[in-house]
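It is worth pausing here to work through a concrete case rather than discussing structure prediction in the abstract. The textbook approach is simple: state the sequence, then state the predicted structure, then interpret. We follow exactly that order.
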Amino acid sequence: MKLFFGEIDNGKAIINDEEQQHIVKVLRMKEGEEIHVTDGKGNVASGKLLIEGKKANIEVSEIQTNTPDFNPKLHIAIAPTKNIDRIEFFVEKAVEMGISEITILQTEKTERKNISIDKLRKQAIAASKQSLRFHFPLVNDLIKLPDFLKNINPSTTFVAHCNENLERMELKKIPHLENITFLIGPEGDFSDKEIHLLAEKGIKAVSLGNQRLRTETAGVFVAAWNYSLINN
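Step two, the predicted structure:
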C-alpha cells in the first residue's frame, strides 16, 4: 500500500502539497498507480494517481470512514533529551507501535529548552504513513510539569522514575485501561520535589525493571508494552 497524507471531505481527497512534490519529484510515480490518502483522523481514500505537470491528484474510487483506532490509547509525556536525535528516535518508534499522543515535558532537570515541535509532528506523520496508520498521534507543545499535571486523571496516569527508596509497582500489574498516560523523566530523573508532587497528585510509580533505562529507551519500552496489549 502506498499511503499519503491529505484532506478528505465530501467524497473528495486532496493530497498535501509536500506529498505531491514527493510523489512527482522523488518517487517519480506514474499516472494510474493505485494510491491511498488519509487525513490522519481515521478516514482513507483509495484510487488512481493522476499527474498534471508538477501536481499529483487522486481519482477516488472508495472512501473508508471511521476506521478502527488502537486500543488501549497510550499518551506518553516525556522530557526531551539533550541530544535531540534520541527523542526523535523515540517519536518514530512509539508512533510505529501505536502511541496515540505525545507531550514534551519541561522538568527541573530538563537541559534542552528549545524544541522544534513542528519537526516532531512531521516525523510522527512520516512514521504513521510508514506503518500504515490512518489515525495520526497528537504531538503537543512543550509544557512545564506542574501545568501538565493540572489536566490529568490520576487513576489512569503512571510515572516511571528511578527512586528505589519509594514504592513502585510492576508494569505488568497495571490494570487494563482504555486510556493510559505515562510520564518519563529527563536524563538524571525527576527531582525529589517533582516525585513528591506526583505522589501528592495520586500518580502511581512504576518500575521498568532492574536496569536503569535512558529516557528514550524507557519511552520505547512503554510503547512496546502497550503495543503488546493492542495485539492481544
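Step three, interpretation. The longest strand covers residues 55-64. The CA atoms of residues 102 and 139 lie 5 Å apart.
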